[in-house]
User: Fold these one by one.
Assistant:
Number 1:
Amino acid sequence: MSEGLYRYDAIGRMQDRQLHPKETPDIGKYLRLGPLGTALLPSKLPRVLLVDELDKSDIDLPNDLLDIF
């Protein structure tokens, strides 16, 4: 579910930390919004998110979506 909401580049953060141990970069540099995360961004126009084949997804996905919405 988190890949739909966002992706976190832990390896990139670890590499940057090893190259620059005294710097503490913003964690936002390592986060990329996924389709669901993008759909939840504030916008002037309404957005639609199509979730297809929910019955074939992970058993927890419907409840995870309810938690987000």
Note: The helical segments are 2-5, 10-19, 35-39, 61-68.
Number 2:
Amino acid sequence: MRTVLTLAVLLLPGAAVVGQGREVIHTPHELQGLPFSSAVRVGNLLFLSGQIGNVPGTRQLADTGITGQTQATLANIKAVLEYAGSSLERVVKCTVFLATMADYQSMNAVYATFFPKDPPARSTVAGSGLALGARVEIECIATVGG
């Protein structure tokens, strides 16, 4: 019942998200020339584009291993969240993309250090061809504002 009520509230005119402006957020370390933004805010929701473990502002991966890439990816997410006025504690949903599910345990161990208490909802899938040959990419949704 609670899910139905939540969806109904989101769909009502004048609800927190519906009918509010769309703010595109570009961070100082965002890669230039790409057809997407670091984040988009609509109402009190912040939608982050997928982040990989690159050195901020460059196309160079911070590390070649899954542990280092996961740490750098989550540090990049934290930086975008803070720039946009949010934080890791306000993340409500993450989607993790792995190059291989063999990296799941190592990624998960690092992920748990960034979300030690009341972690957000999460999905994890494996695919191939992540940007710049990355082993992990993570996107998330967070709350922002009052």
Note: The beta strands are 22-25, 39-42, 45-51, 91-98, 121-126, 136-143.
Number 3:
Amino acid sequence: MVSTLQSGARMVLVAAVSSGQGKTTVTAALARSLVRRGQRVRVFKCGPDFIDPMLLERACGAPVHTLDLWMVGRDECRRRLAEAAREADAVLVEGVMGLYDGTPSAADLANEFGIPVLAVIDASAMAQTAGAVARGLRDYGPVQLAGVIANRIASPGHAQMVAGSLRDIPLLGSLGRQADSLPERHLGLVLPGEQPQIDAYLDALADALQLDAAAWDALPLTAPEAQDGPAIAPALAGKTVAIARDAAFAFLYPANLDTLRILGARLVYFSPLADEALPPDADAVYLPGGYPELHGEALAQAARWRASIRAAHAAGLPIVAECGGMMALADQLTDPDGHCWPMAGLLPGAVTMGTRLAGLGAQALATPDGTLRGHTFHYSRLETPVAPSRHTVRNTSGTQGEAVYEVGSLTASYFHGYFASNPQAVASLFTRAAP
């Protein structure tokens, strides 16, 4: 149940007709603009994503969590939204793809929790037709439409034509064409931490956003109600989990770290790119995904890191490696330029980067402790003589998904698990002994 009493936060789901309309740009601009007005802002990302949340976190100054009715689950989404509404003045949820795309879709999420939709319309090649687009987005589902932000507006006159076409739908703001844009690579935006001018860029976006402050302030306050989640036994109490964290291993859900802490683990971080050895008190190792293919030479030359992960494997420490983490543990990695680099060699085989997606979508992993949900997104392929111990299952087709490999105490896959979907299964992964 959703309450609209005068408590809570102004909450919108930022959506569009398709990808490429400027949802991330508008969400970042709106978040930074509201922060500069002195408001407390929380941002969420709808659907599996690692990179956009990094930019949005930089824009709002707070961790950006994932909302997804299947992967995260309705109850956990509701708890996250309720907590954000208690802590913030504004809650922004960036949608995924088009408003009605996917099963479940961003529209499903908005309707589940009574979140008004803020439609982003790329008006660069239209004027009055923007009204038809907005009304179609509103009425097809239908969804509750808070208003429109027109993106890539050419002039004040252009904005007036768009506003006039909307009829009973408010134009909450407009954003002109931007001379600068964030650089991209094969998995999405270049990581914000690699861009020294990122804050200047976000401030420029906020400056360029023509927000109707009165219309924004007139939006209703929303306060979702939620019950506490189930108690989680501290199955990792007294354990130290060493986590690789740098530009090569950056794809981490904040909820995964939260789950490990709730399980009782102490988290310590190290950088393979800086040739840092595993912390000597580590009881388990987590190698998340990222961009090892862009740092092949540095990883190949990181002798201390490679020796320490081999020693940990030989000693039987549980090692969980996801996607890029798995790639760094193969015998060799061929980067996008065709250069072949030796990796840590815990998983026999070779990884080669491709130019087309090799895996994409929501998947589930069956475990003795129940189902662990997550997703996959990669361009590389692994050729290995190791037989998979099991496979994930694709949602919603039920067909075979990613292979899972177990070599001694190592569990490796292209599958990115969302740890909060099954904490007990995660605890078992991080305590799995070599057979």
Note: The longest strand covers residues 145-153.
